[in-house]
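Hello K.,

You asked for the raw outputs rather than the summary table, so here they are, unedited. I folded two proteins back to back in the same session to keep the settings identical. This is the first:
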Amino acid sequence: MSDRPDSTADPFEPEVRALAGAWLERVEPLAEDMYVHLEGRIQAVGSSAELGGLTKASCRSNVETILSMLVNGIPAAATEAPVTALEHARAMAKRGAEVDDTLRFYRLGHGYLVQHWTAELSRRVADRERMLRAVEQSTVFMVEYIDIVSSRVSAEHLAERERRQRRASVVRADVVRTILDGVPFDRGAAERVLGYRLDRPQLAFLCWTPGEAPELERAAQAIAEALGDGRPLLLPEGPQLIAGWASPPGGGVPDWAAVDAAIDRAPGQVAAAFGAVQPGPDGFRRSRDEAERARRVAVLTGVQTGTAHFDDSALLDLLTADLPAARDFVRSTLGELARPDAATATVRATLLTVLAPRGGIAAAARVLGVHRNTVLQRVHRGEDLRGRPLDDRPTELFLALVLAERLGPAPEE
């Protein structure tokens, strides 16, 4: 004789089916009582007619489904989340609620149902062993049912939140593009969409990484906080780039040391380019343009981490607007002085220091930490390599040396 259990055996005691059938006939008042129970414990239920209606409908659908499955001996593994339960989850996501806020309805509803169900079974079933078996069967079923429905409701809540976030991001991006394009716009409406005031001083920045950066948005938030703005506007522009706007307190000079520290704490390689602080909506656009130009220079010169500021990048941005022409300018102006070897690089660095504002032979010797005669020797060597004296087109020579320092001495075609 086989010891294997009979797979066709009734999964529920007759008492379980009987009580489920009796309750199924009065499912409306049962669902109403559960709704009142939830309404008294979850403030959000009464704050919206839509949410209240969906909560009541979800109570009815879940209670009716549970009772119907018990009556018909359907295992909990066959559970499908009721449509109203999924719609309730979407409504909660629409309100900005967290997943746990949605699941609290199920924890409280489950507790309410089990409490009243167990009490009714105790009254109906006199035999203690049969009563305990009935309680165990139905309780195990309800736990599994709630677990399955909760998982599907959670997934729907998260999916709806993601859908709404994507839609909101698209709308925000459209508003930002309108402002950046200089198209007339309603400032009040734009501020409501962006959740960001435009009438303050504006400092735009671009935060990026050359690799994977799941924490990039957190790094951008930390940068904004270091700038003195806890509620910045952050707009992802791809997996490796975030645009941001912040308003330093009083429109003053930010604490750049704090910004540098925030970037240093960021995981991986993170860099940020900053425009200057500019006033109002027009400043929103101008500072962003400056940040883009500072980033262009940073990428052009191989910066992969740290900060780049437009004030420090403006000249090089201007000089490299036509990059092939800039490289031709370096070659034609420097001649042999553009050679890539270390000795020639030392000569170029010396000439750059001599020609810099407030430079000269003595200043270069002091800055470089060498004897004055060493500077003179390097100047003469530079003149020989270039084939011209130092005072022949000194401005062009200085700019070519700047380009060589930042771009490399002899860039390829």
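The second followed immediately with the same parameters:
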Amino acid sequence: MFLIFLVIVFIIYSVYGVINLHRNYSLTSFTRRIKTTDGTPLDKEVFEVGGIFGSNFELLSMDAEQKFEYFRQNASAFKRNYVQYYLRTPVLNIIDANDAELVLNDPRLLSKGLGYKFLHPFIQTGLLTSDGEKWRSRRRLLLPTFNYNILQQFVDIFKQESLNFVETLNTHFKSEDNNAVILLNKLMPILTLNNICETAMGVHLDDRLDCNEYRQHFAKIEKIFFERTTNPIMIFDFIYFKTRAGKNYLKTMETLHAFSSGIIEKRRKLLSDLEKSSENSSIPNDEDMHYSKQRYVLLDSLLRAEKEGLIDHAGICEEVDTFVIAGSDTTAIGLIFAFMNLSLHPEVQQKCYEEMQEHISDDLSNLDMANLAKLQYFNCVLKESQRLYPTAPYISRECSEDTVFKGNILLPKGTQINIHIYDIHRSAKYYEEPEVFKPERFLPEQRKNHPASAFFPFSAGLRSCIGEKFAMLEMKTLMVLVLKNFILEPITYPDEIRCSIGVALRCSHDIKIKLRRRY
């Protein structure tokens, strides 16, 4: 009888212990729980998602497109921030603009989220993925390379590359037809890759790796990025890189790194030759004159810093890899959706054309930063397109220590904070008719109708994108050249688009428009 009593007591204490443990830990996710500091129910602060197994089974069964839609449905259903537990980590999902602003301006929350770790084999820990003192020193080093005077030098490059792009578009017309079908997602990345290499790196791509090949290899990297974030086994490097997939990944990276190394060495040689030429002759020859006209670019800052001992060759490679892909991918996505939206809204397209004709001459002789700045409606169109289709649908931060958020929410060390830009941008809480394309909402007199914190396509706060002005300048220049020559008509409509999660916003099929020559 006494033995039965002991068994009952043991069972009661065991059940109590498990219940108490479950209050503090998500047992199936092997992680501490997000709690309130005063012990009040967490659901008064945020919505809690998932049962005893967290969100593991649900999310692990989804592909990239399904996962994108899953987060959209959650935002629509919960209408507030929500917590879930997934693959050994607590996750706080932010869909409130004010809370997003708090996170992005919090100096305790500068570390990028866990997902960025899977980009480390490719871009290592450059400006995009580093944190701490390394991130601060790199940002100080690189920020001056995007000032007004340097950006002015890039307009001529953007103009020439845009003229080349117009020539490419003309090749899609058949002689007997005034219509051409354009696959935006195939053509835009080539243009933007050329632009970033020539402006920020000072190198032509003609004698480097073919653009299409580079894009194909990066697409493989992105596919692997998603697979690794959704596979419990592939998360661990020591396992993954012993598999066939891991070894193929390393080969793909070698090709991409060879591309960036070629860029660095070409620029290094050009600058070295210029120095030698200057030392050996007081009278410049034609070649010297050519070199003297070279623009000061981001890569020059890195090479100068290398001489001063502020960065080594590996660090230069990190930043070149980072800026080549980030600087080309973001603007490509922005342009794809901007042109799609222009094709869908002829009245908006006409307003852009009229504004452009007022400020930019047909011979483009006055196409410079000053006149591009006058294209205010262009700005509205680009911003509205970025609102609906932000390049990064979400960004993430990681708590490097136990962190109290908003005074009452205790986030354990390692908590992932996902800020859902896509959902904030499309929230009826901040925008009237949020699904409708209305560039006028960004006119100065209407900006007061939505908070500044509800629009941040280039991130915001302490880690905001240093290339935002560069990207806007590049996109406006191409819009001018294309609208000068063509009328855009729709083929792909928004309800046909199926977005998916990747390194940036992706679509599962081609986005097409039709062009008609203006003249």
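Residues 282-293 have pLDDT under 50 and may be disordered.

Happy to rerun anything if the numbers look odd on your end.

Regards,
P.
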